[in-house]
Amino acid sequence: MGDRVFSKTTVDYSLYLVTDRDLSLGRSNLEVIEAAVAGGVTVVQLREKYATTKEFYEEGLRIRDFLQSKHIPLIINDRIDIALAVDADGVHVGQDDMPVDVARSILGPDKIIGASAFNVDEATTAEAMGADYLGLSPIFVTATKPELVEQIGIERISSFRESLRIPLVGIGSMNRSNVYEAVMAGLDGVAVVSAICAQEDPRAAAQAIRAEVMKAKSKTTKPQRDPT
Amino acid sequence: MGDRVFSKTTVDYSLYLVTDRDLSLGRSNLEVIEAAVAGGVTVVQLREKYATTKEFYEEGLRIRDFLQSKHIPLIINDRIDIALAVDADGVHVGQDDMPVDVARSILGPDKIIGASAFNVDEATTAEAMGADYLGLSPIFVTATKPELVEQIGIERISSFRESLRIPLVGIGSMNRSNVYEAVMAGLDGVAVVSAICAQEDPRAAAQAIRAEVMKAKSKTTKPQRDPT
Questions:
Q1: Is B207 helix (H, G, I), strand (E, B) or coil?
Q2: pLDDT, tens digit, for every residue of B176-211?
Q3: What's the CA gap between B81 and A81, in Å, rounded?
Q4: What distance in Å separates the CA atoms of residue B74 and residue A74, rounded to the nearest whole number?
């Protein structure tokens, strides 16, 4: 882990950026990440949908070098091989990816493993298999394709919170106008894609969302995991 | 490595099957592999072009269980994470996949790492980075798309053989009618896809190709790496 100044137990999940080349208005992942980190992003997940393994690896090296210099954890989506190759801080696995316990056996105890969960059953299973945090997905569903999947919604967040001990990150159409109520309802942080990647000013977008998250966190009484 | 009876230095590359679902006439990979192994295949590479990580992992477990029972090495195409998760015998990396030295640092000294090479430069680089065998590709190019890539051809095999110490496997339109001359020219084995996967009787196809390979090997004077 070299010169990292955080351990996985002190990761701040407040504002978790998931990259998306298609939504980044022609900018590179690194350009978006640099601006987003300047604006207050606390975790970055690098996600590549079409890249070859070599491209993903080389991109991962670049992003890791930058994030290491900023002491921001790098999570790799799905690909444990890439995470190992670039010495990322962890991986995020969905329900179609490697099972959490298999990922844990490959990565060892020190790497962060996050898992996607739609319902409390999936979430408790992932926690029992060794997940370090959960991505609750989707908190909201965009209006354009409401029929595809049911949303978790604000009101169900508390049922996850009551059943789980590990940090909960919400994802799915989260933006500056809805993250406050989501964190008030029990999330430890919010994961965003287009609300940062697709904005003309990713730094300002990150700042605005981060401010909403911190406003909610300052009002919630549960102990914060992150000491900063 | 459990109950495996071979070490990576004694792998027999004579007949190396690369799976391809699209070409398998509706049969599962396992069905094709079972027949091909009965016909004399000595190594199997599991290749998945469209599968999710979870599907690839679960398929890998099934194939590994069968091949382990037959003492046939399993090589995973590209994905080091899958190879680790199913405890395969190794990986095969192309020029768009993980660099060989990075793969080696993740997999350690005991796993097999094969690399694709089109020319002697790529081949010697891969050998220097720690590859255990090379897939020379393509030995032949099919007539339908001759403009896309130049073929290595039979006559250039000797230049690879003279420059390299590790086993050489040829791939690219190899079949029962051309493997004899390819092995006579210096290959340790031949990798086939459609010449087995796409045949009505994969077992008979494997037997016929294996017989040609062994006929050539019995006439070549260089020491065989595989003691069997």
A1: helix
A2: 999 999 999 999 999 999 999 999 999 999 999 999
A3: 5
A4: 32
Q: Which of residues 181-220 of B touch A (CB under 8 A)?
A: none
- Whether the CB-CB separation of B94 and B80 falls below 8 Å is answered with no
A83 within domain boundaries: yes
Answer yes or no: B116 catalytic: yes
Expressed as residue numbers, the domain containing A151 is 10-219
Q: What is the ipTM of this complex?
A: 0.92
Q: Please tell me whether residue A117 adopts helix, strand or coil conformation.
A: strand
Answer whether residue A3 is part of any domain.
Answer: no
Residue A4 lies inside a defined structural domain of this protein: no
Percentage of chain A with pLDDT > 70? Answer: 91
Cβ neighbours of A97 in B, within 8 Å: 52-54
Whether the CB-CB separation of B43 and B16 falls below 8 Å is answered with yes
Supply the CATH number for residue A20's domain: 3.20.20.70
Distance CA A52, CA B129 (A): 20
Are the beta carbons of B67 and B73 closer than 8 angstroms? Answer: yes
Q: Which residues of chain B have pLDDT under 50?
A: 1-2, 228
Interchain contact A101–B (C-beta under 8 A): no
Residue B2 resides in a domain = no
Amino acid at site A1: M
Structure token pair of residue A130: 């060794």
Tokens for A77, please give them.
């989506």
Choose the closest CB to A98 out of B54, B80, B93.
Answer: B54
Please tell me the total count of domains within chain B.
Answer: 1
